[in-house]
Amino acid sequence: MSDKDIGFLPVFECHGLVGVLSERDCARKAVVRRKPLESTPVADIMVRDVVTVELTATFADCLRLMHRHGVRHLPAVERGKVSAVVSIRDLLSETVTHQTKIISELERERLTIFTSTA
C-alpha cells in the first residue's frame, strides 16, 4: 500500500467482496498490537462488515452513509460487483468545486445587478 500510495483496498475472495483494508486498519490492528505487517494475514486485520453504495446513489446518500457508519471510503457496487471506491476526499473535492461555481455565479449576478442599475 505504501509503495503504491494507496490508503484503502477492497478485499476479494472468489470474485466477491469479503472485506476492506485501510491504512488505519494496519496501524490500529497490527502495528499497535505489535504484529509484524509482513507476516500478518489481511484476513486478521481487514474490516468484514463492509458498507457499500450503489452507483445510482447521490452525493448526499454517500455523505449520509459515511457519517452514519464512521467510514471514509465506500465501495460502489453495480450488479453486486465493486466498480469504484468513493472517498471522503472525493466528496470534499466535489463540494469545493460546487461551492466555487456557486460563488462565481453569485459574483457575476451581483456585478450584473450593480452595473445595470448604475
Tell me the overall shape.
elongated
Largest sheet: 3 strands, mixed
Distance between the termini: 60 Å
- Tell me which CATH architecture of the largest domain applies here: Roll
- The helix-and-strand class reads alpha+beta
If you consult CATH, what is the topology of the largest domain? Answer: CBS-domain
Question: Helix and strand succession?
Answer: EEHHEHEEH
The helix fraction, in percent, is: 40-55%
The count of domains is 2
CATH C-level class of the largest domain is Alpha Beta
- Rg is 20 Å
Q: What's the mean pLDDT score?
A: 91
Beta fraction: 15-25%
The total beta strand count reads 5
| Strand order within the widest beta sheet | 3-4-5
CATH superfamily of the largest domain: CBS-domain
- Low-pLDDT stretches are none
SS element count, helices: 4
Short description:
The chain contains four helices and five strands. With 118 residues, it is an alpha+beta fold.
Describe the overall structure:
The chain has 118 residues and is α+β, with helices and mostly antiparallel strands. It has 2 domains: 50 residues, CBS-domain (Roll); 68 residues, CBS-domain (Roll). The protein contains 4 helices and 5 strands, in the order E-E-H-H-E-H-E-E-H. A 3-stranded mixed beta sheet has the order 3-4-5. A two-stranded antiparallel ribbon has the order 1-2. The chain starts with 7 loop residues before the first strand and ends with a helix. The mean pLDDT is 91.
